[in-house]
Amino acid sequence: MAIHAAAHYADHAQDDHHNHKPHGFFNRWVFSTNHKDIGTLYLIFAFIMACVGAAFSGVIRTELMKPGLQFVQPYFFNQMTTMHALVMIFGAIMPAFVGLANWMIPLQIGAPDMALPRMNNWSFWILPFAFTILLSTLFMPGGAPAGGWTMYPPLAIQGGNSVAFLVFSVHLMGISSIMGAINIIATILNMRAPGMDLLKMPIFVWSWLITAFLLIAVMPVLAGAVTMLLTDKYFGTSFFNAAGGGDPVMFQHIFWFFGHPEVYIMILPAFGIVSEIIPTFSRKPLFGYQAMVFAIASIAFLSFIVWGHHMFTVGMPLGGELYFMYATMLIAVPTGVKVFNWVSTMWGGSMSFETPMLWAISFVILFTIGGFSGLMLALVPADFQYQDTYFVVAHFHYVLVTGALFAIIGAIYYWWPKWTGRMYNETWAKVHFWWSMVFVNVLFFPQHFLGLAGMPRRIPDYNVAFADWNLVSTIGAYGMFLTPIMMFLILRRSLKSGAPATMHVWEGTHGLEWTVPSPAPFHTFETPPVIHDEDLAHGDITH
Amino acid sequence: MKGAGLMRSRLGGFNWVLGAALAALTGAAQALSQPWQLNMTEGVTETSRTVYGIHMLAFYVCCVIGFLVFGAMIVAMFKFRKSRGAVAATWSHNTIAEIIWTVVPIAILIALAWPATTVMIGMAHTEESQMTVKVTGYQWKWGYDYINLGDKPYHVHFISRLDPQSDKTRQLKSGLDPFAVKQGNDQTYLLDVDHPLVLPTDTKIRFVVTGDDVIHAWWVPELGWKQDAIPGIINDAWTNIHDPGIYRGQCAELCGQDHGFMPIVVKAVPMAEFQKWLDEQEAAYAKANAPLAAPAPAIPTPAAPPVATGASAVPTAL
Question: Which residues are registered as beta bridge partners of A448?
Fold first, then answer.
């Protein structure tokens, strides 16, 4: 079947030289309705935002290098922590996953494009405007938002008019995410090639199907929360103002009802990616495919009923705290199933360690470490000590950087030859990996110690006892700042002079995306492919 | 301590060597975090020790699971390499293994949740306290009100803010050395206040915690908990301190530009000493006859750096 497909594309290329690409830069990229081009736009945007967010963290880590204030005023420091989080979460990690979804979902289910291509264009092009608005607040009188990305009132609305810009940009991001999610659901449910049953879909597609439902469920909740902030500040309402009969804690409940599913929005697609990469380089089918799907669905369900664990110190009644502790601990079970299944996939395989596999394995190990600290944080009495310290900072950077970001980088190395038709330099890619692996741990592991020793998060200066580990952490950060440059150079060289990629790219690949030539033609699967179960990674779920 | 000093001087640079050497020679008080500290404090209350116990239990459980999972991965990575001629198996299910790794974690979680629940029930029990202190978070200082001791009501109130020496040093590009900020042998940069919260030992103390402007959080690690100080809401918590001493903490909820500069200092003294101090404060209050007036000697002191630990740092000397 694969050979037929290749022949089909070869013929097609011969009688169709222009390959249907729109003429002109503007037409091709600004008016694009092609899922591959829009995917590329998302990924480029995410890369730029990751660099901007990294620059903010550069200010943070430089100020924290040693005790005393050397570089910035505390209020500007708070702007940096706030903007770093907002840019990394909404500008880097989420768009990167949407970019991967755009590129890969149609290819993996045998669809010619996304179900709603024009909406796809719109949902991308909202983002540059949203982030221009958000970043422009840095240059306004009063500066950028400085109340933390969690925007807790009353502090958040003490800020200047940056609040209004923040709220509007969050609304725009929400619209973009909701449209992207609708598009993904519509594509997966309606445009699968005949024979691509739901339980034959690649895990990456499954993870995005579930993630998209999370997005649709919670982005409106965030929009509601920030709208109430807006009216509290400008229109005299008292949703969160105790003096007017409101409740500041209610904001936290609403925010984290969005916020906890949000953190899983940022990790479930990573689960999907790793579940693609590990079987490929283990040359063995994914262990427990159905259990993996069920585990993702369970985690998604649990994400809606555990939000209170972000708020253990707000003074909830004992019963509430017990409930949120038990519910949170339950998440360890499906997450454990996933980790055990990845290890079991490796066990008995025939492994090789190309770059994507290295990122995937490091994901499993380091994400699990983030999971361990997550389990510790779930225990309320211990959380009374951990809450709002660097222990929490270490925890969520292990799940978001070595979790989500590492999976994204692994996915780019994994699918890059399919996108571009060119291999990258394996040696340099491995240097990139090992460099990141070392410095990310130098950066974030000592933050566990700082938090346990008593250093609160979001402070610009600290007691001298915290000096040593902060210096170590800053050294790690400086090492990490080189990694986007490395990755950029590796990929640029690959584009210019990389060896041509084969159709299958990697030895152990299965699935529809590997049945189209490399680079993937501008239009693929214009006629639905004929599905042969044995060509799919999960074509035969009984094995 | 000596080891820490050596490691720091090897890292070199800045003005650290002097501070490190002093710390190495003198040792620091139990209540301050140590350079290179790795773990949580056990604290000075029964609650804080059980909290520490739960923290360590969870940590060891994670270590064991990590050893098994990462161990299996490492074995797999060596044993099942293509370069060693490994041939891939085709199995992708093992019902018994899947049942085991679903059920065993549930059992482990119950084993963790059980002691945590017990401790939480104890921590929530704020009744039957012998005294009550009201804690109010302000941008960026703490207010303390002594409400009662036993059956007797009190009217003692004062504001506790960052000590002047830290405050001068922490200004942007002050050029002052944070390692030089000391109270006796303790390096107290950003962890010292003008008026510490004086509390009796071996007494069940109930705290009612609230905020005046934005949300703060009152946290002294040695006591084993933190509690958010929220405007419009009154939270409560309790402690019972065993050992006399000075215990330092910080605001633990982002509260604006000086969030990092509103420390908490608890000075725990034996009950007799505390009673004497509190009665003096109450007498000073009665004399001033105004609930909010600070006793006279406190007014000139903020400008001068505290001389000895605690002596000038309370409204009147103990």
Answer: none
Prediction ipTM score:
0.92
Q: Is residue B55 part of a domain?
A: yes
Q: Tell me the DSSP string of B216-241.
A: EEEEEGGGTEEEEE-BT--EEEEE-B
Domain shared by B149 and B232, yes or no: yes
Query: Do both B139 and B56 map to the same domain?
Result: no
CATH of the domain at B76: 1.10.287
Task: List active site positions of A.
Answer: 84, 113, 149, 176-177, 260, 262, 264, 275, 309-310, 335, 338, 457
Do B48 and B176 fall into the same domain? Answer: no
Q: Which residues contact B25 (CB under 8 A, 6 or more apart)?
A: none
Tell me the count of A-B CB pairs closer than 8 A.
320
Neighbours of B290 (CB within 10 A): 9
Q: What is the pLDDT along chain A (543 residues), one digit of tens a residue?
A: 444 444 455 444 444 444 678 888 888 999 999 999 999 999 999 999 999 999 999 999 999 999 999 999 999 999 999 999 999 999 999 999 999 999 999 999 999 999 999 999 999 999 999 999 999 999 999 999 999 999 999 999 998 899 999 999 999 999 999 999 999 999 999 999 999 999 999 999 999 999 999 999 999 999 999 999 999 999 999 999 999 999 999 999 999 999 999 999 999 999 999 999 999 999 999 999 999 999 999 999 999 999 999 999 999 999 999 999 999 999 999 999 999 999 999 999 999 999 999 999 999 999 999 999 999 999 999 999 999 999 999 999 999 999 999 999 999 999 999 999 999 999 999 999 999 999 999 999 999 999 999 999 999 999 999 999 999 999 999 999 999 999 999 999 999 999 999 999 999 999 999 999 999 999 999 999 998 888 888 876 554
Amino acid (1-letter code) at residue B164: P
Domain of residue B69 covers 41-83+95-125
Q: How far is A365 from chain B (nearest CA, A)?
A: 7
B68 touches chain A (CB under 8 A): no
> Cβ separation of B228 and A369 shorter than 8 Å?
no
CATH number for B139: 2.60.40.420
Quick one: B152 and B276 in the same domain? yes
- Nearest alpha-carbon partner for A77 in B261, B229, B211: B261
How buried is residue B61: exposed, middle or buried, by Cβ count under 10 Å (0-12/13-18/19+)? middle
Q: Please state the domain count of chain B.
A: 2
Is this structure's pTM higher than 0.80? yes
Report the C-alpha dihedral over residues A40, A41, A47, A52, rounded to 10 degrees: 180
Considering only CA atoms, which of A368, A394, A410, A398 is closest in space to residue A272?
A410
DSSP string, A226-294: HHHHHHHHHS---SS-GGGT--HHHHHHHHHHHHHHHHHHTTHHHHHHHHHHHHHHHTSPPTTHHHHHH
For residue A345, give the nearest of A273, A275, A414, A268 by alpha carbon.
A275
Task: Kindly determine whether residue B260 and residue A333, on different chains, have CB atoms separated by under 8 Å.
Answer: no
Whether B92 sits inside 8 A of A339 (CB atoms) is no
3-state secondary structure of B185: coil
